[in-house]
Amino acid sequence: MSKRESDQPLPTLPSLGSGGDRDPSPGRHWSSSEDDVGWLPDSHTDAGGYILLVSGQPYIRDMVEQIVAAIGGVLHVESEPAAISAAWQQAEIVLVGSDIREVPPRRAAPAVLLGVETDGQALWQTAASLGAERVAVLPDAGPWLAEYLSRSQAPEPGGTVLGVTGGCGGAGATTSAIWLAQVAARYDIRTLLVDGDPWGGGIELSLAAEDVPGLRWPDFTEAHGSLDPGQLADSLPVCGGFSFLSWPGSRERPARYDGAISSVLEAARRGFELVIVDIGRGRDTVAAHAWECDRILLVTPPQLRAAVAAARLIGELPPVDVDLVVRGGPASSLDGELIAEAVGLPLSGVVPDIKATPMAVEQGRLLEIGQRRNVRRFALEVLGLADGRNGNRNHA
Fold first, then answer.
1. Separation CA 45–CA 369 (nearest Å)
2. Burial level of 91, CB count in 10 A (0-12/13-18/19+)?
3. Non-local CB neighbours of 357 within 8 Å, separated by 6+ positions
4. Where are the domains of the chain?
5. Which candidate, 148, 50, 54, 156, places its Cα nearest to that of 109?
6. What phi and psi, each to the nearest 5 degrees, are found at residue 17?
7. Half-sphere exposure of 371 (CA within 13 A, CB side)
8. Phi, psi of 261 (to 5 degrees)
9. Nearest alpha-carbon partner for 191 in 239, 227, 157
């Protein structure tokens, strides 16, 4: 964690998944001109090992060769994965093309799956089957891939990106995300809450923070390439002790922002210790945000149909740690452990059943409810800070 001006020792936020070095997303259009290299990272490092590309597609191979040469890396190219298990194991980074359908047995999953726009939704399905950590659609992802490969050879420390999504509609994912952010901030963890659902009405309404000054998602729709983490943090509104990035709580139709998501979240990762993303449940929002996360919480009510719906959603999520959070309720016929066993996920925590919560959501008073002791216990357990005795004693 970053140093703070505080006399109190801080709790240690555990590693919630792989990667403080996962990087931004497709930025400006790739240019094959040797004179036009404005997309290159500001600083370049020599490769400590080689980059392996497995693909038989000439277009992908040509583009990756240009990118790796531009960053001063060493590239090893193969067409088939079957005969290169040794090279796969020794490579620093493994890239695969969308023409590859299987990887060598007992080998690490590829870092990035590369495809083209015509691959469509099948690209994400291939990524899930291969266990790829990231997906890059060329040529637009050329700038992102250059920066990703450069940073991977000299990774910077970064925070954790925690995704929260509902196993069914009305599961309580947004409420859980807000309370987690509130409690994390209470324990001096520099936290950002991100509204990942442009059709969700704006998380700022749940915070009663629509008038708080700062940038919202529409201000970032044209953002590409690297963003300055400090400038991002300074530009965002603050409420409840944490920063937030929301869609406006208005009737305006949301603008497309696909190209900005990874740029914003990568800068957020480097500017905050914990980034909590309220993913939403739509296929587009899951595909856009879930693949940026190190860990995902799947929130579900204590009901059989909700558990079935949650189990179906698991197949749409990337290969990261996924835990279950069960919403408490007086009329539940199934307890959390039984639901977790049925869904096939570890139980991370149970959202406390508070009768005032539905009205608090409508009135923008969730932060008021979030000050309760049982909410704090829930959040500390989920964040792995249940032994919060090492935190700020003023919060006990």
1. 49
2. buried
3. 175, 366, 369
4. 50-153, 160-395
5. 54
6. 160, -175
7. 6
8. -60, -55
9. 239
Whats the size of the chain, residue-wise?
A: 396
CATH ID of 50-153, from 2.60.120.760, 3.40.1280.10, 3.40.50.2300, 3.30.70.260: 3.40.50.2300
Taking the C-alpha atoms of residue 350 and residue 159, their distance in angstroms, rounded to an integer, is 25
Structure tokens at 283: 């296929």
Q: Which amino acid is at 22?
A: R
* Pairwise CA distance, residues 57 & 160, whole Å: 34
Q: Give the architecture (CATH level 2) of 160-395.
A: 3-Layer(aba) Sandwich (3.40)
Q: Where does the pLDDT of residue 82 fall: very low under 50, low under 70, confident under 90, or very high at 90 and above?
A: low
Which phi and psi angles does 41 have, rounded to 5°? Answer: -60, 155
Q: Is the previous residue joined to 139 through a cis bond, with omega within 30 degrees of 0?
A: yes
Decide if 25 contacts 262 (C-beta within 8 A): yes
DSSP label at 300? E
Reported as a single tens digit per residue, the pLDDT across 293-304 is 999 999 998 888
Give the helix ranges, DSSP H, for the chain: 58-70, 85-90, 122-130, 142-153, 173-186, 203-206, 229-235, 258-271, 283-289, 304-314, 336-343, 357-363, 366-369, 373-382
Give this prediction's pTM.
Answer: 0.66
How does pLDDT run across 111-163, given as a tens digit for each residue? 899 999 889 888 888 888 888 888 888 988 888 888 788 777 655 567 899 99
